[in-house]
Design goal:
Blueprint (H helix, E strand, L loop, with lengths): L2 H22 L12 H23 L4 H8 L2 H14 L4 H9 L10
Length: 110
Amino acid sequence: MEVGNRGGRLRWKIENEGFNAQKNGGYGLEHAFSLDTKAMKSFYVLLQIAYIFDQLMEKGNLLRGRIRETMGSLKVFSQMLWAELTHTVVDPGRLRALLERRIQIRFDTS
């Protein structure tokens, strides 16, 4: 088997698993929240961001242990995060200061 062919199959597997998780993992990918094409595209972009964030939290070491230690599970964390994001007004200056800090995320390869 050619190297390129194996890479293509691996890429397909990764994309398919990600799409399947978004479709069946509680992200609401199949639900039509709007008939407006622009709104649908916006929803999908936000869904992709949420999925990436979820993967970083689940597979990365940045906060995973701390979240499980203090909140019991990633599900509880995500529910609390959703509540904060939907009910909190963000100060732009404070957000800029936080985003300027450098962080490093390592992925668990075990």
